[in-house]
Amino acid sequence: MSDPNVPPPQTPPPPVGYSSAGPIETDPNARQMGMIVHLLEFFAFLGPLIFWAITKEKNPPFVNRQAIMAMNWGLVVLAGYVIGVLTSWIFCIGVLLNVALFITNLVFVIINAMKANRGEEGSYPFGIPAFK
Prior knowledge:
Strand 1 and strand 2 form a beta hairpin. Helix 1 packs parallel to helix 3. The chain has a two-stranded antiparallel ribbon. 56% of the residues lie in helices and 3% in strands. By secondary structure, the chain is mostly helical. The protein has helices spanning 28-39, 46-55, 61-86, 93-118; strands spanning 18-19, 22-23. The chain starts with 17 loop residues before the first strand and ends in a 14-residue tail after the last helix.
């Protein structure tokens, strides 16, 4: 039986430069570019694609990973919008789908932009691994 006077063991905090999700990017320019890539995702996958295509040789690996993740999510959003438009004639299901997709996209883009600005790896709920 455990002694009530002994505190339970606690897990040590992660080492400096790491979060619970993994390593943290320490370069402020890379973090800012990662955030910008996610915010460019409001233009579907074209915003991150253009940014990544122009600057991929100069970018740190952190920014390239963020751009690829944003492009893959952008493809999912674009496919959702197309499905929403095609089904909009069925009792306005498509209109409701597009509104829900817009709100979901807004939330996940902001969350992942904030994570990238902190130097953490973000994640989207779905992604088509079209870009690697």
